[in-house]
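Show me a record, fold above all:
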Amino acid sequence: MGPIRLLIFDLDGTLIDSLPDLTDATNLIREKYGLPRIGISDVRKMVGRGVRNLVERALPGVGVEELDRATEVFIEFNLAHIADKTRPYPGVPETLSDLSGLGIPMVVLSNKNVALCREVLGKLGLERHFTDIFGADSFPYRKPSPEPVLAVLKGFGIPAAECVMVGDSINDIAAGGGAGVWTVGCSYGYGEMSELEGASYRVGDFPSLLQLPFIEKKK
C-alpha cells in the first residue's frame, strides 16, 4: 500500500450515531399516517440509502404524492432536531484531530442530503476537520454506485490507489471497491458484519483507524 493522499468518510453509522434523531423523525411521519411507532432497531434496517428511501420503507403502501409530502416533513423536522440526540461515536473528534495532522484532504461522502450533513457536522463541531462535504444531492448517483467516489477523486485529482474510503455498510464498501479505492469497514455502525466482508480493512472502533498501515506510513 503506497502513500494515501485522500480520506473519504461516510457520516451516519461511521462518524456519528444519528439513529435516535432519525427514529424520532420516522415516528413523526408514521404517526401522521396512523401507523404505530417503531424502535431504533427497526429504523436501523431502513437507513443507508437516503431520506426518500427511508420514508418509502417507513410508510409502506403510501402513494407517490404523499411520499413527497412526507419526505419534506421528515427533512424539515430532522433539520430542526438534527443534533438533539445525535452524537459522534467514541473517539471520533480526537481521532479526526490526529488524522488532520497527516496534512491530506479529508471529506465526507454521505447518502444524506448535503444540507443535513453540514448542519449536523456544524452542530457537533466536526465540520472544521473536512476539506469538503458531499451528500445525496451532490452528484447524479449515490452510494453504492462508485460514481460519487470517482467524482470526488476527479475533483481532487487523486488516483484511486491513493485514497481510502471509510464506512459502515455495503453502500460504502461497494462504492469504494467499485471505484478502486482502499476501503475500511466500521463494524460498530449500522451495517451487518457480512456487509463488510469485501473491505480492505475492518475496525471495531473509530480510533483504531490510527493503527492501520496507511496511517503508519504517513508518520
Observations:
- Residues 52 and 72 are 9 Å apart (CA to CA).
- The chain has nine helices and eight strands.
- The two ends are 14 Å apart (CA to CA).
- The beta strands are 6-9, 16-17, 87-88, 106-109, 132-134, 163-167, 182-186, 201-203.
